[in-house]
Amino acid sequence: MSSMSRFFRSARLLFLVAVVCAWVHSPPAAADESPAAMAKTAAAAAEAGRLVINYWDKWTGPEKDAMQAVVDDFNASQTRIYVDFLSVSEVVQKTLLATAGGVPPDLSGVWAANVVELADKDALMPLDDLARGSNVDRARYLPVYWNMGVYKNRLWGVPSTPATTGIYWNKGLFKAAGLDPDRPPATMAELDEYAQKLTKVENGRITQIGFIQTEPAWWPFFWV
Question: Which pLDDT tens digit goes with each residue over 50-76?
């Protein structure tokens, strides 16, 4: 596709917790991260009088290493709280099962789309009271990020790893359709309008489609 341009859209990830740690710049040093070793460390922290927070997250590989570094930095920054971080596959399903069994994690890192589902199933505790008076405040977040954790006027989660995605458009096709090639759609309504103007149908067959969500659906997810 020639003459490509792009603009950026919203985040996709949420961290369902009232305590949010900042990003760090490097992964942690190699350590024994077996479940037995992690349980022993958490037990030692509890014996030392620290409040142990069980935190499950979906990340694996490099993303998991980065989040582990965040947790390690937080644990080293103070002696009151110890976050016991665990990388969990299928974290949404396992969070629901653990909650139903009465042994949920304290924190669960899920996708933004799961917030409403989990809140509707009474699998989350609203964070409004916990956030009040803390540094977890609407003013610290872009509205698009903060609002993804709000459902029925209650706060259920806040973002930890927001991702910026991009939409790409063909300036030549914009010009041919009578659209401003330097102005991409800014709302969902405009996206629908532009897609219709960019779509061509000849003899009952689509010869050009303005926008398609299914393929290649991964195009917008370039880290920027």
Answer: 999 999 999 989 989 999 999 999 999
Q: And the tokens for 14?
A: 């949420």
Q: Which residues contact 35 (CB under 8 A, 6 or more apart)?
A: 86
CATH 3.40.190.10 in the chain: give the residue spans.
Answer: 13-21+34-155
Quick one: which H or E segment has residue 49? none
Measured in degrees and rounded to the nearest 5, phi and psi for residue 112 equal -55, -35
CA distance 43 to 57: 20
The pLDDT of residue 113 is above 60: yes
- CATH fold of 13-21+34-155 reads D-Maltodextrin-Binding Protein; domain 2 (3.40.190)
Handedness of CA 130, 134, 137, 141 (dihedral sign): negative
The secondary structure of 118-178 as a DSSP string is HHHTT-S---HHHHTTSS--GGGS-HHHHHTTEETTEE--B-SS----EEEEEHHHHHHTT
Query: Cis bond leading into 216, ω under 30°?
Result: yes
- Note the pLDDT of residue 32: 47
Q: CA-to-CA distance for 220 and 165, rounded, in angstroms?
A: 5
pTM of the complete model: 0.64
200 has a pLDDT exceeding 90? yes
